[in-house]
Amino acid sequence: MNKSIKYSVTAVILGLSLAGCSNKIISMNDNHQVNDLRDLDHDGVIEAREHCSNTILGSSVDNDGCGSKSEFIVRQDLHINFINDSATIAPQYQGQIAQLADFMKKYPVSKVTIEGHSSKVGGYDYNMTLSQRRANNVASDLESHFGIAANRIKAVGYGYTHLLDNGTTELAHQKNRRIVAAVSGLDQKIDYKWTIYTKN
């Protein structure tokens, strides 16, 4: 009998304990979300980590939400010849300068070096000055007629220090009286994500 009373009392105590636990009120503090968890440009990176907010949709991105880009070198050469002792650009070369300007507008980070050269007729100092005038005229044409910013153009006169033809004939001199313009810069191509629907 005593055993059954003990078991009954124990069962009652356990029951009351469990009942007390189930009715206990737990108070929780309101937590304010500090980080912005939205993804406004839909690139899979939350705004809290986003460094490039205008990512092109579908492009491959890094952990900062910046699109992956491949860089490659672009180049175009220009050749202009001059008559003896002249820095005047002949009209037939305006088309080449226009093409160069169009190329530079297509690649807005590109820069050009205009190289002026002379034949080996006359003194060194005179030809250095003459070749610089030739380079300056082409650079000025790019800036004033075609709107290319001056900080993208460099003009250098080399005189007869870089001869194309070491001969002394008039044909050799004609080849050496020239402008060479080399424009180069970095172009960027967006890398896109591959999916099962990607065709290429």
Question: How would you describe this protein?
Answer:
The chain is of the alpha+beta class and 200 residues long. The chain has a domain of 120 residues: OmpA-like domain (60s Ribosomal Protein L30, Chain: A). Strands 1-4-2-3 form a 4-stranded mixed sheet. Strand 2, helix 3 and strand 3 form a beta-alpha-beta unit. Helix 2 crosses helix 3. The protein starts with a helix and ends in a 10-residue tail after the last strand. It is found in: Cell outer membrane. One of its GO terms (molecular function) is calcium ion binding. InterPro entries: Bact_OuterMem_StrucFunc (IPR050330), OMP_bac (IPR006664), OmpA-like (IPR006665), OmpA-like_sf (IPR036737), TSP_type-3_rpt (IPR028974). Keywords: Cell outer membrane, Membrane. Pfam families: OmpA (PF00691).
The largest sheet has its strands arranged as 1-4-2-3
Structural class based on helices, strands and sheet pairing: alpha+beta
Coarse morphology: rod-shaped
- By CATH's scheme, which homologous superfamily of the domain at 71-190 applies? OmpA-like domain
In the CATH scheme, the class of the domain at 71-190 would be Alpha Beta
Residues in β-strands, percent:
15-25%
CATH topology label of the domain at 71-190: 60s Ribosomal Protein L30, Chain: A
Low-pLDDT regions: none
Q: What is the ordering of alpha helices and beta strands?
A: HEHEHEHE
Average pLDDT across residues? 79
What's the total count of β strands? 4
Main sheet characteristics: 4 strands, mixed
Under the CATH scheme, the architecture of the domain at 71-190 is: 2-Layer Sandwich
Please give the count of helices: 4
Helix content: 25-40%
Radius of gyration: 38 Å
End-to-end separation: 86 Å
